[in-house]
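Q: what does this look like with zinc ion bound?
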Amino acid sequence: MKTRMLALGGLDAAPGTRRQGTVDVTAAGITVPLPVFLVNGAGEGPTLVVTAGIHGGEYPCVEAAARFGRALDPAVISGQVIVVPSANPVAFRARAIYVTPPDGKNLNREFPGSAGGTFTEAWAHWLFENVLRQADAYIDMHGGDMIEALVPFTAWNRTGDARIDDVARRMAEAYGIVHVVERDLEGLYGMTHAAAARVGVPAILTEAGGQGVWDEESVRILEEGCHRVLAELGMGPAVPGAVEPVVVHPGWTWLRSEHDGLYYPAAAVGDVVEAGQDLGRLANLWGETLQSLTAPVGGLVLFQVTSLAMNTGDPLLAIAH
Ligand SMILES: [Zn+2]
């Protein structure tokens, strides 16, 4: 007889039951209610953690995670599922792009965080210690931010540990998104899924949607992927229909703005570009070119920022190799 309770910040669920509610999280003196689903399966199994909305303006993943949390039936689940559908509620409510308002930091660059740090650093620390530490497998859902368009993709980071990498690869292949970016974990810091991988948790990042829109197709891709991973891990029922074989990209190259200016792209997301190809320019309001953009490598334009306004250091686009 299974006796393991699933607990998070004062909420708990006995085996075969589920709980949904909010947990009060205090970071840098600010207390914010964090919505969570706890689903403790009737059967034995691992713990899957799903987070969405680490970036507050990425809406399809928030809706997908909430639907996933609501759909889970503990009677047919083996193991535990923790879903945090809006993992950065302050940024969500503020409709913030990239950063979290109290300190202007990017939560997806702050993991594993710092208890005594600024709001975002302390928030990352709480999530890491209380949520991610419980995971045997982890899905972090994103989308293009409010000024980004993208081709749906999954990414994961090779740790060099065969067991961890095998599970992460299986999760990425099962999820159902065709384009998969595989990189080495070495040198990657701050991202939620990279921080989880660093402590031995097989972790994937998935992205669909963008530009501040939430659309049913992106929500469907992201929610269905979670159910497919649940099935792949032997924790939940099979999802009808086959997924397309993945196309693996062994890395990506980002272009960034070197000026404050206006961005005139010459390629679109989904384009396959060649090394040296014209990708547009940064200019000022007088029409003078500040930066000419050429593709440093060939590959698929995986995401592109759609904002006319550009600041020094901002990402412009990524090319998947
Ligand atoms: Zn994001």
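The chain has two domains: 6-248, 252-320. Residues 55, 58, 108, 142, 145 surround zinc ion (CB under 6 Å).
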